Amino acid sequence: MAVPQPIRIKVWIPSESPTLSDRERERLMTAVDEAVSEVSSLLSVRRVPDSLLLNRDINKYCKFIWRNSSTVNHMKCGRAKENYRFESCFCVNIPDEHLNGCAVYPHPEHPVPTVLRPEGAGVPDTDFLLYVFTHSTDKCRAESSILAYAAHCQADSEGRPLAGTMVICREPLSMERYTHERYVQTVIHELFHVLGFSKELFSRWKDCSLSSQAGVDCWPYGQVISTDEMGQVRLYSPTVIRAMQTHLNSTHADLGAPLENKDVGSDGLSSHWEARVLQGSIMAALLVEPSLIRIDPITLAALQDTGWYSVNFSRAQSLVWGEGEGSQFGSLSTCHNPSTFFCTDSALGCHYLHFHKGECLTDPYLDGCHIFKPLANASECWNEENERSGMKEESGEIYGSDSRCFISNLTRPNHSSSSRALVAGHCYRHRCTGRNKYQIQVKDSDWSNCPAGKSVEVSGYQGFIFCPDNRLCKYSDLAPPTSRQKTDNLLNISASIESDHDVKEKDATPHPNLVPLSSVTVSKPEIIMAAVLSIMAAFSLSAAVLIYRKCSSARVRVHAANEPLYRSQFPLTQYIRRN
């Protein structure tokens, strides 16, 4: 058998797609190209040897099938339907040149057929065919927050999806708040769904653990989804279990990856990871700013366990959330306790990656657990422009590409409010001196060592800065957006996935039931330190960016996107255009 090679994803623009403006088309094609290239660098398959041809549904074109097993034409079409016109792939008509032919056999014993449709030429050099349909559909108009939605529609004899359609709502493409990064991530997320990470496809996954090649000598798992003793639905497959054990530093022998319990359908299943446990994953139900989302090892492990792909794990991105926290991390019995990831009070702090200032909030997917989410305005420490609007002069804040969020109550001694210093997240410069070792700089101060897990004082200020442990100068693939990447009010346009596969945006106003922020006052160093340590024990993932919904009976979705921190090793896909 051929050695697996990077999957060739061909993009086809259907003839029924409306004409886009030059600006819309450039935005769409650039984002799709980059996402397809990235996925091709992650997944390899045994390639389709010839041109890819999709199948026709015999139940659509055939009125009568010969079912007598003793006949020559057993299970072949005996009579055609007069009104048969086309095959479809979720909202798109499949061109005849992409399809196998079809014929009828008028007599059960005569093998000579009458051809209804000839075999198409097929699509060359293609392992997966993605129809991209950009339009203001009824669904887009009915729910203006939807960005896109998608579904797979055909599979090969081993169950691997061969084709799917992604519907991209047209209006967001033309809006000023459009961001390229968000759409790249949207397409990647949706491609992962249509390629295998979907509750519609879990039952088709193949166990290839004894196989020397992906997709060869495999057999069905039978069941990869089960509910644990606490009622949490989990995905249990070999590579996923090992990835969870590694990530949480656990020897638990049966540690499946939890699925979301808030966007389930009638079958009780979700196609997203549980928000409390796998925040920051590209397949979590709530997505945040693109720079905070990771193509993580657990998601790649799931794609490996489909049995259809050989996964390039060297391109996995660090998933910091919950790392090393043990098998009970994120459970309802533990998430209400203050920790370095969860918070318990309405307070000001830092997002756990320390790119943003944050406030302690919850959302419908956290089951009452609270995490630090970016502030609505001027939360990005790395954004130099925030220095004008967000800087607190008395605390010595500095905004810039090398600035990060630190829990602090630092203030200048002569400031009028110094007796009531607020313990909260503040922006200061940092530079790495080693793994998990760094120095910090406050306005008008020299560089000072900041020992991880300890607090430091700064000359010319009163109060303390707490130095986070195992967050800064540890992950080489974590970085804030570059100066050319604009947030475009991204944090003010949060969204969540309300069902399985659609991506939506909506206002990021705080939940009305959330407790308002409160300040922390200190008067003695001991009290200051206690407050700092208490709040520092509560860092967590930021505001949601996308909403996913179900499209008709299909399972689909779409995401907000971010420009990958790495470049693809493979050329961009070619586009097939129809006039």
UniProtKB/TrEMBL annotation:
Cofactor note (record): Binds 1 zinc ion per subunit.
CC per GO annotation: cytoplasm; membrane
Top-rank taxon, per record: Eukaryota
Annotated membrane topology: Single-pass type I membrane protein
Main localization category: membrane
Keywords associated with the record: Hydrolase, Membrane, Metal-binding, Metalloprotease, Protease, Signal, Transmembrane, Transmembrane helix, Zinc
Sequence intervals crossing the membrane: 527-548
Localization, UniProt: Membrane
PANTHER family listed in its UniProt record: CILIATED LEFT-RIGHT ORGANIZER METALLOPEPTIDASE (PTHR10942:SF6), LEISHMANOLYSIN-LIKE PEPTIDASE (PTHR10942)
Protein name in UniProt: Leishmanolysin-like peptidase
